[in-house]
Amino acid sequence: MAERTDQPLVLGFETSCDETGIGLVRGHTLLSDALATSMAEHERFGGVVPEIASRAHLEAMVPTVHRALADAGVALPDVDAVAVTSGPGLTGALLVGVAAAKAYALALGVPLYGVNHLAAHVAVDELEHGRLAEPSIAMLVSGGHSSILLVPDLSQDVVELGRTVDDAAGEAFDKVARVLDLPFPGGPPIDRAAQEGTASIAFPRGLTGPRDPAYDFSFSGLKTAVARWVEAQQRDGVHVSVPDVAASFQEAVVDVLTAKAVRACRDHGVDHLVIGGGVAANSRLRAVAQERCDAAGIVLRVPSRRLCTDNGAMVAALGSRLVMAGVAPSEPDLGADSSLPIDVVSR
Ligand code: KG4
Ligand code: ZN
C-alpha cells in the first residue's frame, strides 16, 4: 500500500442508529459536522425504533449533506472520496446511508469506503489530537458496544482484547435512567443528576474478581442491583435520592471501565489510551480516566464531548485515514452488515 502525503477531502455518512451525520474532513482537519436526529420521535418508546429511524434518515439525508457542504465552504466536485458506516448498527438505517453514499460516490466518480462504526469512534480523536500513537489501547463505550481494543494500526489492524458479555455501558445508563424516571437516552441526565449526589451506595463491580476475564465487562448485574435497591427503598417507604443512586451507579461503571482500560495498557506495555463512543462524553469517566492514567504514566486521549456521540465527521476521519494509508476502496456492491465485527475496519 502506498501512503499518500496530500490531504484528501472526504465526505462521511453516518446512519447506523438515530443520527443522520454528514461530515467533511480534509486529512486530519475537521471542516464540518452536520447532524439531524430523530431522537424526539423515539423518546416515548424508550428506545430507538428502527423503522422510524430509517424513514427519518431518508428525509434528512440531502438537506444534511447540503448543510455539511455549506458549513465547510466546499462544493461536491471538490470531494476526493466518500466514506460510510457499513456496520454495525440497525440494518434499515445503515442501508439508507450506504445507498446515499454509493449514489454520491458514483455520481462524483470517487472511491467509496465502507467503514466500521466502532473504529470510526476511535478515529475521530485524530481530528483533535493528531495521529494516534501506534500501538494504542482503545476503549470503545457506546449504546450498543463496550470493548477494549489493541490498535497497532487503525487503518487495518484492530484486535479485540475484551468486550461486554451482556449489556453495553451506554445501555446500562439508558436502562438505569428508566428505573429513575429520567429521559432517554439516559447517559446525559444521569451524568447531570450524579453531579448533585454522592456515590454512597455500594453497587457491584461486575467481572472484577481475580479469576474473571481481565478485559471483559458485565453491566447487567449492576443494572438489576440498582433496580432492586430502588424497589426495596420504595417498598419500605424510604425516599429515593435520584442524585445519590445516579452517582453510585455511575461510579460503579466508571470504576470498572477505567480499571480495565489501564490494566490493558499495563499488561500490553502500551502507554497511550484513547476512549471513544457516546459514554466517553461522561464527565466522571473523563475525570477518573485522567486521574488513573496520570498515576500510571499513560497518555490519555478523549475526543471532545460533541464528537464522542454518533456523527458524520468520525466516519470521514476514518475514511481519510484509509485513503492516506492507501487502503483499497470498497467494491460497488458494498452492503450493510448489522453485526460487522470490530476487527473489520473497512470492507
Ligand atoms: O456512540 P453513541 O452516540 O451511539 C452508539 O453507537 O450506540 O452512544 C450512545 C450512548 C447512549 O447509551 C447514551 O446514553 C450514552 O451513549 N451517553 C452517555 C453520555 N452521553 C451519551 N453515557 C454516559 N454519560 C454521558 N454523558
Ligand atoms: Zn456510536
UniProtKB/TrEMBL annotation:
GO molecular-function terms, A-Z: iron ion binding; tRNA N(6)-L-threonylcarbamoyladenine synthase activity
Recite the UniProt cofactor note for this protein: Binds 1 Fe(2+) ion per subunit.
The entry's cellular-component GO terms read:
cytoplasm
Q: Which UniProt keywords apply?
A: Acyltransferase, Cytoplasm, Iron, Metal-binding, Transferase, tRNA processing
Q: Which organism is it from?
A: Klenkia taihuensis
Q: What does this protein do?
A: Required for the formation of a threonylcarbamoyl group on adenosine at position 37 (t(6)A37) in tRNAs that read codons beginning with adenine. Is involved in the transfer of the threonylcarbamoyl moiety of threonylcarbamoyl-AMP (TC-AMP) to the N6 group of A37, together with TsaE and TsaB. TsaD likely plays a direct catalytic role in this reaction.
Amino-acid positions noted as binding substrate in the UniProt annotation, renumbered to this chain = L140, V141, S142, G143, G144, D174, G187, D191, N282
Q: Which reaction does it catalyse?
A: L-threonylcarbamoyladenylate + adenosine(37) in tRNA = N(6)-L-threonylcarbamoyladenosine(37) in tRNA + AMP + H(+)
Enumerate the subcellular locations listed in this protein's record, separating them with semicolons.
Answer: Cytoplasm
- Cofactors: Fe(2+)
HAMAP family tied to this protein? TsaD
Q: Which domain of life is it from?
A: Bacteria
Record-stated family? Belongs to the KAE1 / TsaD family.
Residues in Gcp-like domain copies: 30-316
Name recorded for this polypeptide: tRNA N6-adenosine threonylcarbamoyltransferase
